[in-house]
């Protein structure tokens, strides 16, 4: 069996072409639209901004191994913000679109991996 070598640059160009194709899929288009709609919702963006701030503060406490009882008020506020965010249709639509986009990207990555594995039966990727 003759092996043909592929230049790394050519392979990366092909990857860029695949990325361009992926960007044209309904899943990516729906994600872009949902993201724009969510970003246009001032309430959602304010809640998200505050949620991210709280998440950073919680992470700092956790990194310093502070017992949760000392920052439970942050955890409670985070939970309340999550409940409010889940009630906003634009946020829900964004999360759904993001999930579908991630499923598409995972399916593509899995397919590429499986195709390589099939062609290299002696290599164990697991």
Automatic annotation (TrEMBL):
Residues 37-64 form a coiled coil. The keyword Flavoprotein does not apply. InterPro entries: Bact_com_dev_regulator, Com_YlbF, YheA/YmcA-like_dom_sf. Gene3D superfamilies: YheA/YmcA-like. It comes from the Bacteria. Keywords: Coiled coil. PANTHER family: REGULATORY PROTEIN YLBF, REGULATORY PROTEIN YLBF-RELATED. This is YlbF family regulator. It comes from Alicyclobacillus dauci.
């Amino acid at each position: 069996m003759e092996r043909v070598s592929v230049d790394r640059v050519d392979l990366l160009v092909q990857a860029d072409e695949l990325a361009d194709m992926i960007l044209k899929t309904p899943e990516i288009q729906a994600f872009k639209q949902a993201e724009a709609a969510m970003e246009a919702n001032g309430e959602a963006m304010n809640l998200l901004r505050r949620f991210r701030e709280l998440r950073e503060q919680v992470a700092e406490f956790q990194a310093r191994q502070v017992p949760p009882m000392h920052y439970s008020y942050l955890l409670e506020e985070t939970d309340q913000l999550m409940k409010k965010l889940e009630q906003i249709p634009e946020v829900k639509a964004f999360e759904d679109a993001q999930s579908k986009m991630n499923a598409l990207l995972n399916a593509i990555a899995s397919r590429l991996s499986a195709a390589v594995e099939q062609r290299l039966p002696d290599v164990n990727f697991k």
